[in-house]
Amino acid sequence: MKYRASQELTSMIIGDYEELINAIPEEKVAVYLYTNRMYHSTYVPEDGLYQFVFRHFYRLENPSLTQDFKDRFFDLMEGVRGETRPNVYHITKSLYEVANHKGAYTLQFPLATAMLHAINPAFPHYDTQVFKAFDFSSAYHLSGFYKKMKRYIDQYRHMYETYQKLIDLEEMQPVFDHFDERFGGYQLPVEKKIDLIVSQLGSTL
Fold it and tell me: Record's superkingdom (predicted)?
């Protein structure tokens, strides 16, 4: 399937990058840094404050999700500590095995990527705004875990490869410079800058 690639996204971003970056809520930067930095200095399953902030920031407070799901989520988050490349497939599959309040089994791939992104910003966060920015096709109509997962993995790979290209593009340097002017005090890695910029772009579409 054809999704937006680095060249098209660059053109869309550069078109009005100052307005785009100025519209990014500072809260998104500050809370992300909290979830990232605190992860590396806490024991997640027993840190109620960390879980509270994470649940609200990454929308883990979905009414359909059970406490068992949330417990499994934070146990998995702790369990991948120290892994260089946590397996998003295995994480998503483990979460899929926990039924929601209606007894249904749902594929929570975006939440799995939120987990990895909080641990390491090099792993993109697949959220609704990014979905729009890339013009991804929905996996909702596909039947079964494996067909849906294949669609998600293909899109996630495309995201990762596109972000790496955007980071290296000379045309993006003025964009990063303006980002640093706006949020310079936060010392964000470039992967997180890309995540915020693309997500903000998606929110305008």
Answer: Bacteria
